[in-house]
What does this fold into?
Amino acid sequence: MRTGRPLQWPPRLPGVKRGEETPAVLFFSLFFLITAPFSIFKSIRDASFLTELGSENLPLAYATAFFVGLAVALQAKLQARAPRRVLLTWSLVFFSLTGAAFAFLLQMSGKWMALAYWVWANILIVSLMTQFWMLVNDIFNPREAKRLIGFVGSGGILGGIAGGLLTGFLAKSFPVGIMLLGGALLLAAIPVILRLTGRERPGGESRDFSAPEAGDRAVSMRQAGFKSCFDTVRRNGYLRLLAGIVILTGLISTFIDWQSKAVIEMTVRGHLASFFGWFNAGLLVFSFFLQILGTSRIVDRHGIRSLLLFYPALILVFTLGLSVWPVLGLAVALKGGDKSLSYSINQSARELLYFPIAPEQRVRAKVFIDMFLNRFSRTAGALLLLAAFALPWPPALQAVGILSVLALAAWIALNLKAASAYVRIVKDKLRGRWDRGDREVETKVDVDFAKTVFDLLETRRRSPVLFSLHLYDLIRKKKLTPDLRAMLLSEPGDPRFTALGSLFDAGAEGAASAAGIEAQEAALEECVREIMELESYGQVMEAYLARALEGKGKEDSVTRMEIAKTLGLMPPRSPLVRRLEELLEDESEEVVRYALESAGRWGRREHVPALIRRLDHPRLGDAAEEALENYGPRITGGLIDVLLDSSENPSVRSKTAFLLGRIGNQDAVDGLWHALGAASGKLRDEVLDALDRARSAGRDIRFDRNRALAHLAEEFKRVYRTFIAEAPTRDAPMRRRKKDDPLRTGWAAGLVLGVFKLLGLAYPREDVFKAYKNWLSGTRESVAYALELLDNSLSKSVRDRLFPILEDYSLKDRLRLFRSRLKDVGELKS
Amino acid sequence: MDIKKREKNDITIFDIGGEIRRTDIAEATLHELVKDQLDLGKKHILLNFDKVEFIDSFGVGEILASYISTHNLGGHLKIARISKKLFLVFQITMLTKVLEIFDEEELALQSFLKE
It folds into this structure.
């Protein structure tokens, strides 16, 4: 009987998700077929040059990069006019035919033919490589690229190995022309694969969601000449940074090439083409394993910063080694290290750096940087070497080594700057900021104003006194807007409003000036305040309240509402306010509501218990909450006591959590942390929300990251467990469309929001919720950039547990991932 | 401030004119004048504000003090023909619940008769 897992078909490709297999394999093949012939051409190039012209003329060969630059400029013009796939196809035809021509020309021998062939091979690789990566850039977003770049890149490396091995085996038995013809034939086969990639992934011009309309883009692309490409780079700081990196890369690569080839020429005896064939194959085998095993892991574990530093650090070590001890082994290690890392890690890192740039800018930048500057830097390196050779004392290996070390130091500095800039650009790429719903309402709607207006309108027929009190409230708060004033004055028949009209002197001449109205309002406010401060007023009202609130003569609820409202407007120290206590316990909910409002204005400690008692009232809870909120930080301790009191009503505890979140000072936050550890269910959600609210206020409050991560680990478990328990019945069979992802918009969305709230407590909240907002939108690009930002902001242990929740997976895959993660959620590291 | 006194059916009517403000105190304040009447045993007081152009909190204080004094002696103080603006102030301060305010003097006089 068979045991174990059934065989999967198609088989899992490293880093490739389901559904991406076909494009991944096609691009893998495409890259393979580009690099295999180039590896043949390159081995022949190096061998024929060293044989015909010798290493002392290498700087001359490097200097021909200038011609490559010219060819690149021409290609830039063509690029602006032709679609990517069409241009690539025609380039392949051109190089295939010219490669076949060189099969005959190179056999004629001659020094200049070797130089011409050198130039041709270099143009070929620059042209095809640039076009290939542009196509990849156009078609995949950063998330896809990060996943696929290792696999696709390894196709190129394998091609290089295959080409190298072929050359190594065949160079001794077959003439150069036959091998060149073979390479040309391989190139001719590429358009078929290219066509298939077009079917699988259409496009290849642009993919960015923020890109302009296609028509505009076409016009813009036509204008992508050399000048505009240069201007694009010149005007953008980030692109200038990338340009600097490429210049230094080219310089260093040229120095390394000369150093290693000089040592190889001195030490290798025998067939050079065969040596270079084996050498190229060998270094690419190393590159292949590095690409497959290293690149993705470095990106995954340490992020783009480490990826950018790994290469220069290693080259620095080899350069110093060769300068001290110039032997073949170290020469091979240096050249091999440079090439293998430049094919794998450096290429991947550079391509990743381009992804967050808008497509049009990217095309122009790549034309200028990768195609022109790359060549220019090699020419510059060559000129430096030529100048050095012209000196009476030609440069020693050590002198060039020192130059390399200096350039490497600058390179490391620029790489560090680029890594920081990359994260910043990804952040900018994300749409908008995320505001809590309640905060958004608060900033966009004046809730207090709206409530007072509604109260005003509601009482216009019910009680002239309440109406006037609400009106006064609006005046006091400077919120009696012209619109509202006009609306109130539009009912001249009503005596209540004629009083209002006289206040604003709205006589036959029409409405008074704004300044006049403002003065009238200020006078009224002062007058009312002064009256309420009068001793005689206190006496009169004392007697009235006694009559209205006590004994058999107790007045109706409307009067008690009026009293409750008026008490809130009394000046400080008014003895009348003690009457609020009985109104807070009134039998009428409407009276209590006004009393709560007034109590909130007064902020007296003796009222707090009554307010807390009202928190769980279905209709008065909000008013009690608002009143307590007006107390501010003074009642933090009391609220924490209620929150932590397990014998207290859970609904009251939830509301106190909410209030502590609104207060949001350090004591409140500490109390909430304390409560979060002990709370469960809805209370826990409320406490977490309160912490998030406090965090979102942006005050200078300390949030303990380790504490947040400890809770986050629990939250991950909660998401995994809930999903594993409920998803198979709720979501199977998975017939829903992608946008109905239960974790994004479905029944489990609340759980994910909880995760993000905790993330927001551990990491910069704005970034976390920016990513959340974009992830929530569910579009391919937004999700990709959201994950990219999180990828560069969170620690690996957090990412490992978060990404199975955020990435798109089938139900089956997600369940499998959740089960495996549930076993080792463990401790999260910051 | 200009205050004139007249009587009708045992009701003392004060016709007040001008501005009642802290900075414009007459020889005798409204409260003093009312107290004089109360001392004379006249406990039905009507304040007619028909000619009043302005009244500040001091003026309201005078009215309230007069009201208290009258009320303490078991009398009645009523107000007639106050401006709409003052009525609004009285509403905001809930004094409309305490003071008896009439649009017309005649209505106020009739209310005295009912008592």
Summary: Chain B touches chain A through 24 residues (CB under 8 Å). The longest strand of chain B covers residues 44-55. The radius of gyration of chain B is 13 Å. The beta strands of chain B are 2-8, 11-20, 44-55, 76-80, 100-102.
